[in-house]
Amino acid sequence: MLIAPLSLLRHPLSFVAAKWQTLVRVAGDPYRPELHYMRGPGPKWRAKYQASRLNRSI
Predict the structure, then answer these.
(1) CB atoms < 10 A from the CB of 20, how many?
(2) What is the DSSP letter of 28?
(3) Residue closest to 20 by CA, chosen among 8, 12, 31, 9
(4) In angstroms, rounded to a whole number, what is the distance separating the alpha carbons of residues 21 and 31?
(5) Distance of CA 2 to the CA centre of its chain
(6) So what's the pLDDT on residue 56?
(7) How far is residue 33's CA from residue 39's CA, in Å, rounded to a whole number?
(8) Across residues 7-31, what is the average pLDDT?
(9) What is the C-alpha separation between 58 and 56, in angstroms, rounded?
């Protein structure tokens, strides 16, 4: 009698366990591509090349 309800719960519990394992694996992955995305020159580059541009135009 108790075996039938346990077998019905086994599939949903294994599904939840598999999804949980996937979530833990993905969350623990150290690679984050958004940190490596180049968005263009930063303020140091602009300061360096802005100064050389101003000196050339004078």
Answers:
(1) 10
(2) T
(3) 12
(4) 18
(5) 43
(6) 65
(7) 13
(8) 82
(9) 6
> d(Cα 20, Cα 15) in Å, to the nearest integer?
9
H runs (alpha helix) in 1-58: 3-27, 43-57
CA-derived radius of gyration, the chain: 28
Mean pLDDT of 2-18: 73
Give the integer Cα–Cα distance in Å for 40 and 42. Answer: 6
Q: Which two tokens stand for residue 27?
A: 């969350």
Rama region for 40: left / alpha / beta (φ>0; ψ in -120 to 50; rest): left
